[in-house]
């Protein structure tokens, strides 16, 4: 399965890097392909290293202004013209999406993917990997949106909140029908 992962390129604390590495190793051992932003820094590097070292493949989609930070030994690397094209290519090349911890870029990617799913532009399973409760506040906000009528379909039809990588991967494999 080609699994797109949106996540930070920042160097982060062990409470985020350890679970990210564990999830990456699950992907690699499962023979999955990581589709990611292509960066050779921060949490993006941790996940790419873990997938590759565990036997998985890497498909990177970087963007022209970050091309100098792109991983050189990925199985495939595409350089997009801009962030909009990058997001479209990431979604196009994937069977499922996992949103890990990140900043404004990750949040932008997450909300766009969920908006496209809400409008039926894709039906791929989407998981928010809620490492160390990072997305508790976002989950509460999404629940409020659903409760107050801002979502045209149930939140559970848009996104699955997983507390760990095992739960995230199990959900994806069960939801996608792909392995």
Care to describe what's here?
This protein has a seven-stranded parallel beta sheet, sandwiched between helices. The protein is built from seven helices and seven strands, in the order E-H-E-H-E-E-H-E-H-E-H-H-E-H. Helix content is 45%, strand content 18%. The chain is globular. The longest helix has 16 residues, at 14-29. With 179 residues, it is an alpha/beta fold.
Q: How would you concisely characterize the structure shown here?
A:
This protein is of the alpha/beta class and 179 residues long. The chain has helices at 14-29, 42-53, 83-92, 104-118, 136-147, 155-158, 165-176; strands at residues 2-6, 33-36, 57-63, 76-80, 96-99, 126-129, 160-162. The protein has seven helices and seven strands.
Strands, helices and their partners?
Elements: E1 2-6, H1 14-29, E2 33-36, H2 42-53, E3 57-63, E4 76-80, H3 83-92, E5 96-99, H4 104-118, E6 126-129, H5 136-147, H6 155-158, E7 160-162, H7 165-176
Parallel strand pairs: 1-2, 1-5, 2-3, 3-4, 5-6, 6-7
Helix pairs in contact: 1-2
């Amino acid at each position: 399965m080609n699994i797109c992962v949106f996540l930070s390129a920042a160097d982060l604390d062990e409470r985020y890097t350890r679970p990210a590495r564990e999830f990456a190793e699950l992907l690699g051992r499962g023979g999955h392909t990581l589709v990611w932003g292509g960066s050779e820094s921060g949490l993006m590097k941790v996940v790419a290293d873990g997938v590759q070292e565990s036997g998985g493949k890497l498909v990177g989609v970087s963007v022209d202004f970050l091309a100098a930070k792109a991983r050189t030994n990925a199985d495939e690397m595409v350089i997009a013209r801009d962030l909009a094209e990058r997001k479209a290519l990431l979604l196009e090349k994937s069977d499922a999406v996992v949103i890990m911890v990140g900043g404004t870029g990750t949040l932008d990617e997450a909300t766009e993917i969920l908006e496209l799913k809400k409008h039926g532009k894709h039906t791929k399973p989407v998981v928010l990997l809620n490492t160390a409760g990072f997305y508790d506040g976002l989950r509460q906000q999404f629940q409020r949106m659903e409760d107050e009528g801002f979502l045209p379909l149930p939140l559970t039809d848009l996104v699955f909140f997983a507390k760990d990588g095992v739960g995230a991967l199990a959900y994806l494999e069960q939801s996608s029908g792909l392995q």
